[in-house]
Amino acid sequence: MRAENNAIARKLFEKAVQASPKNRFSWHVWALFEANQGNTDKARKLLKIGHAVNPRDPVILQSLALLEYNCASPNVARVLFRKASQIDPRHQPVWIAWGWMEWKEGNERTARSLYQRALSVNSTNECAARCLQAWGVLEQRVGNYTAARRLLRSSLNINSQSEVTWLTWAALEEEQGDPVRAEEIRDLYFQQRIEVVDDASWVMGFLDI
C-alpha cells in the first residue's frame, strides 16, 4: 500500500514540474519526499535541477547543503551555505542552518558568528526566536549556563508558545540540580497554553454572538 502511494505521489510531482518547470516549490517538495524515503541521489538530483531553474533562490541551496551534511560532506555543505548566503544575505534560515551545522561539527565560535549574522537581519521575528533557541542549546552544551538562560528567555520573549524552548530551559535547570525550578518552568509553559486556549474560546464565543 505504501509503495503504491509513493508511486502516486511521484506521478503527481512529475505532473507538477511538467506543468510549471520553474516552480521552486514543486522541485523542493519532491526532493524532500525522496530524501525522506532514503533516496538521497534522487533528492540531490532534484535539488540541483531546482537550483538550475531557480538560480537566485537560497532555499533550495540550503536544503542541498543540509542533504550533503547528512551524507557526511560538511565541506561541500559549507560551499553551498556560503553560496546561498551570497544569493540572499537577508535569508535568515540559511545563517541559522549553517550555524547549526558548525555547532554539530564542534565549531562553536563559527556557529556563534553565524547565529549573530542571522540576528543582525532581524532580531524580533520568528526566525530570530528559533536562532536564539538554537544558540541557547549551544551554550548549554558547552556549559555556559548563564548565557544559555539569557538566550532561551530572549527566544521566549519573541515566541512564548514554543514548547521546545520552554522544555529546553526546564531541562537545563534539572541538569543544574534544580528540579523545583525546572517544574516551575514547565508549569509556566502549561499556563501559557491554557491562557491561549481560553483566549481562543473567548474569540470564538464572541464571533457566535
UniProtKB/TrEMBL annotation:
Q: Which cellular component terms (GO) are annotated to the entry?
A: chloroplast
**UniProt cross-references to InterPro entries, sorted A to Z:** HAT, Mbb1-like, TPR-like_helical_dom_sf
Name of protein: Uncharacterized protein
Q: Which GO annotations describe the biological process of this protein?
A: mRNA processing; regulation of translation
Q: What are the recorded GO MF terms, alphabetically?
A: mRNA binding; single-stranded RNA binding
Its lineage reads: Eukaryota, Viridiplantae, Streptophyta, Embryophyta, Tracheophyta
Q: Transmembrane ranges?
A: none
- Domain of life where this protein originates: Eukaryota
Q: Which organism is it from?
A: Aegilops tauschii subsp. strangulata (Goatgrass)
